[in-house]
Amino acid sequence: MGLIEAVAAYLDAEGRIESRVLPREAGFLYATESMRLTTRLMQLASWLLLQRAVNEGEISRENARSEKEKVKFSATPSQRGGPGYEELPQTLRDFIDKGDRLFERVMQLDALEKGDLPAVTPGLANGVADQLSRLKAAFARAE
């Protein structure tokens, strides 16, 4: 929620001023990206609020799943960039990056909640244990 408030404050004040001096193409992209960012953040907030409601026992997991299916996320982070993107104010690009990172984390949580566990390669399931076994093997050879 803090990110949403920070983005809203930026777009309402500093961002509005910064957008006025952008070249035409970058100005159009600014409008597009700021709308995409606010939409995505509201979608993420909706998802997170549903999750909190389940955790606090306010709604059932099944009801939350049905509501979450109604939330369709806007453009993915891979669709960033293009002509004029580098001309966008750094503050907006930083907010976009933060929103994209939050999106990726929520997508991981969503996949885990649905039971879509990431594939684990045998031997790499525990990176620390794998490294320790390599060290033991290396020191065993040295003796």
Automatic annotation (TrEMBL):
InterPro entries: AraC-like_sf (IPR038301), DUF1465 (IPR010848). It comes from the Bacteria. Gene3D superfamilies: Protein of unknown function DUF1465. Pfam families: DUF1465. Residues 61-72 have a biased composition (Basic and acidic residues). Residues 61-88 are annotated as: Disordered. This is DUF1465 family protein. It comes from Devosia salina.
